[in-house]
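Posted in: Protein Modeling Q&A

I'm a second-year student putting together a small comparison for a lab meeting, and my supervisor asked me to include a predicted structure for Amine oxidase. I've never done this before, so apologies if this is the wrong subforum. The sequence is pasted below exactly as I got it from our records. If anyone can share the structure token output, I'd also love a short note on what stands out.
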Amino acid sequence: MRLLGLPWALALLVAVASSGPSAEPADPASIFADLSPAELRAVRTFLMERPELGLSPSRGGPLAKNSLFLVELLPPPKRSALRFLERGGPRPRREARAVLFFGAQAEPNVTELAVGPLPRPGSYRVLGFKGGRAVPFSARPMTRLEYELLHEALVAAVAPLEPLLREATGFGFQNCSERCLTFSDIAPRGLGPGERRTWLVIQRFVEGFFLHPAGLEVLLDHRDPDPRRWAVQRLWYNGRYFGSVRELAESHARGALPLARLPEPPARHLFSSYEPRGRFASGTPTDMHGAKVCEPQGRRYRLRGNRLQYGGWSLAFRLRSSAGLQLFDVRFGGERVAYELSVQEAIAFYGGHSPAAMQTKYMDAGWAMGASSYELARGVDCPETAAFLDAYHLLDADGPVRFPHALCVFELPTGVPLRRHFDSDFQGGFHFYAGLEGRALVLRTTSTVYNYDYIWDFLLYPNGVLEAKVHATGYIHATFYTPQGRRYGSRVHSHLLGNIHTHLVHYKVDLDVAGSGNSFETMDIRFENISNPWSAGARVVQPWLHREPRRRSPGAGEPLGSWSTPWEAPPAPRLTPPLACPRYHLAVTRRHENEPSSSSIYSQNDPWDPPVTFESFIRDNETIEDQDLVAWVTVGFLHVPHAEDIPNTATPGNAVGFFLRPFNFFNEDPSVASRAPVIVRPLDPPACSRLEIQRWTPPSAGPCVHPEPFSYNGTYRQV
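Accepted answer (user: helix_wrangler)
Welcome! Here is the predicted structure, written out as tokens:
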């Protein structure tokens, strides 16, 4: 049976289960809630029992089989959702998206299905990508089974190199016990469509193995569904290329190979570990707890299922396995400001001297970026006071897998007032002081995509501002140091090169400001040199505001650079990668149901001819005046690794994002509705010896200590 491919970019799944009160079925936000474990099982059972699909379990068996890779919520069409949310229409049909690998047929392919209605599915239909694009089998994401077979093939292929590896590193693949080698794989997997050739970086398997390359990189072709036909095509060792394992082994045996001998890793204080070492010069204590976030009178937000409310804000949220956080029906003061705000893709483009480094162009949706949402540590990843939520992914598994504490929600003191003013009388006193404490509500999750950890935040401020932010941390993607490699990065340890790379993150913002019919206008600051109207012969140089309506989608793509709009996203370098989205700082298009995402889980392994091409979104010459519009935002930064990235890249200086700010939307700052300001007025000016202090909160915040000790689980198991 041949099924066609589907249109979306991100395939995987997640369901969020709060540790607090569960959402009532009648809550409108529940139409966007991720699938429950029961719904995930129901979809899997239904599909596994369809004889025409011929599905086999994900675990075990051959690669050339039909299997279910992913199940996740298929969000309802926007028109149906708005009919339900705004006009009391029928609740939209609840469906799942299922990604199937059809490998047990003459022409293998990947197909996506819509399965429903939930909670008791009874039918499915094929989902198609824009333009009817099919997904070739070679574009599929990697599975655990393929990784297991890849490891077996690698170990067998490089067996003749065991003497070389033992002599150079003290580690090996054969009978290695606790001194084993491992590998990291690079993508894209080849140089053109249909290929599946992967460069593997060999590393010593110690804590933080990403920083311990052995100097050997292996190109292994694993396109054929039969692993017996897989073969090593090229090798790179210590700056030299070899055409075969035999050639490298013989070079070593003859003594003609310059060997890169690595020092013995220490039993303690390994440079790639988090173990404390050294002392601060100031001598101030670090072996005691620092400042903490507290909620002295309890939580000031409401979390019910997947609905979050805070001050004037109300929104629904979910966590997709492929690309992570997705907000729906975002409102302030009861008015919808955005229908959807979501992470689309995170990409990193590297340079280097070794083949693995120069080949690395990571597109993290293809690595299950959203399903890499491992447990958040209370008091470290999120404050002790945070509300934690579990996630359920059905990705490359034979049932739902629970990821405990995958998300958290907390109110954060920003450390700076939201507003303040001291009104001096310029005589040693004052007329009044007023200030409003700075607070924001944070919705957070993380993605640990192998070496890198991304911390994803949406922040809600009381003045109607929404911030989307991502911090990059974790281990750098590093390769073996050679003198030629210095051109492409920094030597960060004795045998380690930190490779230069650019991080780019893409967001979708479906704005519905005062309805779905919106237009797009940019504003730029220009300068004029004019005659001074009140002083003859004098000149005035002053700024003025240039407004430019953007009428059609080809003119709505803004190259990366520095210009001003209400978006206020930071600039990033211009690139021309396989995905078009990073070319634009901001692109605005008409919204279409068949353009739900700018990327795809298939783009990583087929960037040359991907089923989703963002460029097609902005080349259709459509009018964008008084239409339902989507803003596509790209943010990013250049990372030149340095010694201070050891053991991990730190979050300060490695964060990017953008703001949604009201711009003449309200009559005044909506945070005036907050009851948290402080106003101080002197009763006897100018002496100011008697003061009137106005507060609308209790005079004292009270104790701020969380009584529970630190605990952590860290497991994620099938349920």
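A couple of things worth pointing out for your meeting: The longest strand covers residues 335-350. The longest helix spans residues 144-157.
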